[in-house]
Amino acid sequence: MEEHTNQKPPQGEASESVKRDAKGLFASISKFLDELLNIKSETDKDQTIEDVKKDIPFKGHNAWILVFSIFVASIGLNVSSTAVVIGAMLISPLMGPIVGVGLSIAINDIDTLRRSLVNLGVMVGLSVLAATLYFWVSPLTELTPELEARTAPTILDVLVAIFGGLALIVAKSKKGTMPNAIAGVAIATALMPPLCTVGYGIAEGGPKYALGALYLFTINAIFIALATFIVAKLLRFPMLRYANSAKRKRTAQLASLLAILVMIPASYTFYTTLLESNAAHDYKLFIENDINSNENLYLRKDFYNYNEKTIKLYFDGEMPEAIMSDLKNEIKKYDHIGDFELTVNGNKARGLDQVSKAYDRAIVELDRIEKENSKLLDQIEDLKIQVAGLETSLNEANKVAPVTVIPYFNISKDAKIRFPDLQTLGYAEVLQSNFLKMDTIPMIFPQWKFQVADSVHMSRTKALQEWIIKELKVDTLYVK
Fold first, then answer.
1. Which of 141, 268, 409, 467 lies most in the core, judged by the most C-beta atoms within 10 Å?
2. DSSP one-letter string for 144-160
3. Predicted pLDDT of residue 174
4. pTM assigned to the model
5. Residue 396 CB: number of other CB atoms within 10 A?
6. Are 159 and 56 in contact (CB under 8 A)?
7. Strand partners, 302
8. In what order do the strands lie in the sheet with 438-448?
9. HSE-up of 10 (CA within 13 Å, CB side)?
10. 169-193 burial string, b = 16+ CB within 10 Å, else e?
11. pLDDT for 216-244, tens place per residue?
């Protein structure tokens, strides 16, 4: 007799099996992610360095393309058209010198760094000059939302510059192709509008706008160069070799110092911009959730000052102490504006004044509606009079005896025999009114084959008229 038993493996062997399966899974995932995200195998470092150096100079075609793209972008900002601004970005060659700065620092190439900085200055000067010229001659001088949005850095601008710079240098480093158009647009998003806004500030005499936009451009340019520097270091681009070891050491130290000097203010700006953006977001939520959602609160004006950490709210109507205290407690729940000084102001007289003004507006609106109704009533009376007149005319027209059906076919045949020169003969009954009564009159329309003298024409037409009057047995017949 055989016994069939199901024996379970020992506990230690099961644990080891699970560990082996987990290691195999992690290894598979790691291999998949490495194949998915690894760009080192398809990076052509020497060709990338050569391509970046080619894009640095600003002269000839690149200079004209830059000028024209700045004009297009300025027009888009001037009329607040996002589509036109994007179109300008597609043709803008802005990224060359900035990418050159980041790459040259990463590979210790002082000559390329010098060329990049010189061409960057040329690029900025040419762009600002073109934008200033446009806004100086443009009849549209209003500060549009598109222009105003480029007068101070926000966290979104910084992020666009960072990811645009990362995308561009990664695209440039790929072997065989240069798929950098999209990354170029991303960089142009961070660079072109601020430069155009600098030109607007200069043309309109607004140093606040010009300096704010220039600061935004500087921050974005730094982050684009910083992104290029980081990618070049991660991909281990070859450092420039110098025959003189002392010079090589000085160059490396200078490049490292420049990188640190760039990273410190850039990191600080990113941090402060992030804090300011978070505070503005919390303030917006505070207004929406705690004020606008309350039907008993009528916010007339609000003043938000991030630098001074103050918020001033002005309401219509009297503000009880309980509501003021409640608002001050509610604002403390927001992490980024909880320490702001909140000032709440109410105005009872202002509330009564608003009610009075609303009443006056309602009275004025009622007067306007009454006047319009009076005009409509007058128009209705005029229409009634016209309808009555038309009814009278119609009744008189109905009293006219209907014309007996005439044997027109026979008359036309006889007319052709009696008047051989007659080519065609038309007949109709025409309605005629002297605006008091309406009559129906018969009328003939003869056409003759030959033109004759006026006296002969009148004679034959009269003869035809007299003959048809006799045949139709009518008192009056008109000839057309």
1. 467
2. -HHHHTTSS--HHHHHH
3. 77
4. 0.55
5. 14
6. no
7. 313
8. 422-433, 438-448, 478-479
9. 3
10. bbbbbbeeeeebeebbbbbbbbbbb
11. 888 888 888 888 888 888 888 887 766 55
